[in-house]
Amino acid sequence: MSAGASIAITGGTGFVGQAVLDAAAQAEIAVTALARKVPGDRPKVSWVQGNLHDQAALAELVSGAKAVIHIAGLTNTPDIAEFASANVDGTRNMIAATKAAKVKRFVFVSSLSARKPELSAYGASKLEAEKLVEASGLDWTIVRPPAVYGPRDNDMLDMFKAARWGVVPMPPKGATSVIHVDDLAGLLLALIASSPKVRKRNFEPDDGREGGWSHRELAKAIGQSVGRNPFVPQLPKTVLGFAAQADRLLRGDSAKLTADRVGYMCHPNWVSRSDKAVPENVWTPQIPTPAGLSQTAKWYRDNGWL
How far apart, in Å, are the Cα atoms of 196 and each of 21, 113, 274, 279? Predict the structure, then answer.
């Protein structure tokens, strides 16, 4: 896609969305973005105020766009019924608006958790949304990121804080892939140009580390990013369940460790599949995870988060 062509994105004020806006600005790609509350610090973005259930806002968002990147979604909530409303109904509404505007290209950000929908309501909602995209008749590509980290990320922040104290509790033995948010943003922009190599494909990107990271290795790498060699207790599912109850008592609706998250955290294999890798001539990861973790830790410190 040529510089100056416009794309429409949802979730522009979120963690991944902001990285996409940064990358689009660097590439001089015009962006129209949806937001519940329009921020004042990105004047070059054409903002549309609204949400995924506001038909008029969605119509305005996609009008004249060359491609849509649907990032917005609910990743965590104490009320699992909200996953269907946000992730399934929201995606259905985006598809309808995209088709009504006669926009063909549709890139959908799903989740690796969609591989095992029986483990979490979140993963089940993402898989259901994927099925809507696949049946849409649009020129679609689905991206299932693994654990995403980087500046502005609030989800993995607690692990960095724990590492500073010298103890990083982790789920039972297993392995996971990770990806830096800037690499993910680069991939999403690379996918706005349709080609047979990416059309109607479901990709599982990662940082390029074959076999992913064991939970212990990842905790140790996070520790190294903050100058510590932490103790890494690997907690059984029952203990994590009690921890989720405690987090709910302490942080209420803002709790990060929910029962739904415990369900998929304890699965032993969240490694991106090599047969679902993005073709190398379309995109390759640029940020090695140790360097990315150090950069993230520095961002946390510089912004008073750590």
Answer: 26, 26, 19, 11
Q: Answer yes or no: is 281 within a domain.
A: yes
Residue 273 carries which DSSP code? P
What's the count of helices (H) and strands (E) in the chain, helices before strands?
A: 11, 12
Q: What is the CA radius of gyration of the chain?
A: 19
Task: Report helix, strand or coil for 265.
Answer: helix
This prediction has a pTM of 0.93
Does 203 have pLDDT greater than 70? yes
Query: Is residue 109 in some structural domain?
Result: yes
Distance CA 80, CA 116 (A): 16
CA distance 23 to 296: 17
Type of residue found at 54:
D
pLDDT digit string, tens, across residues 41-66: 998 999 999 999 999 999 999 999 99
Distance CA 76, CA 227 (A): 30
List the alpha helices (DSSP H) in 47-155.
Answer: 55-62, 81-83, 90-100, 121-134
Q: How many domains does the chain have?
A: 1
* 46: phi then psi, degrees, rounded to nearest 5: -85, 105
Q: Which domain holds residue 31?
A: 6-149+179-208+273-286
CA distance 232 to 217: 9
The number of beta carbons lying within 10 Å of the beta carbon of residue 302 is: 10
CA gap 180, 295 in Å, rounded: 10
Residues in a beta bridge with 142: 108, 202
